Amino acid sequence: MPKAPRGERLVITLLGRRNVGKSSLINAITGQNIAIVSEYPGTTTDPVDKHYELLPLGPVTFYDTAGLDDVGELGQMRVKATRKILFRTDIALLVTDEKGLTRYEKDIIKELQEMEIPFILIFNKIDKGEVKTCD
Fold first, then answer.
1. Which H helix or E strand runs over 105?
2. Cα(62)–Cα(8) distance, rounded to whole angstroms?
3. 4 pLDDT higher than 60
4. What are the strands of the beta sheet with 10-16, ordered from one edge?
5. What residue ranges define each of the domains in the chain, with the CATH number in brackets?
6. pLDDT tens digits, residue range 7-45?
7. What is the separation of C-alpha 42 from the centre of its chain, rounded to a whole number of angstroms?
8. What CA–CA distances, in Å, run from 109 to 2, 44, 48, 105?
């Protein structure tokens, strides 16, 4: 694949809590094992980027990020690194699970709206239980 300059690539960032399936989703979209997937929360520690040709859209960069609910001092550093990615994000894929919209999703939705970043809300793992609706 010819290399597209960074400025010509659409940046798509996957956001969400730990273990909602962000890494599984990026692997499924690209058909490659880009991100490590496990049952343990906090597996993704640093943003993982993948350049990809998404037809018919063209060249994109996907970012898989750490969970927004990561805890502890190290966890907060991971969340900060995730939020830095927003400054280069063109569109966000906000992934949640059967827990629905928690305060973490609500906070990031507000931040995305303030930054005028369009987003798509993805409900993943809905086969695991009933999706909680938000207030």
1. helix 103-114
2. 14
3. no
4. 48-54, 58-64, 10-16, 91-96, 119-123
5. 6-128 (3.40.50.300)
6. 689 999 999 998 898 888 888 888 878 776 767 666 666
7. 13
8. 34, 21, 21, 6
Burial 13-48 (b: 16+ CB within 10 A, else e): bbbbbbbbbbbbbbbebbeeebbebeeeebbbbebb
Is there a contact between 92 and 117 (Cβ–Cβ < 8 Å)?
A: yes
Task: Check: CB of residue 96 under 8 Å from CB of residue 105.
Answer: yes
25 within 8 A of 44, measured Cβ to Cβ: no
Least confident of 43-47, 71-75, 104-108: 43-47
pLDDT at res. 30: 86
With CA atoms as reference, report the closest residue to 4 among 54, 85, 59, 63.
59
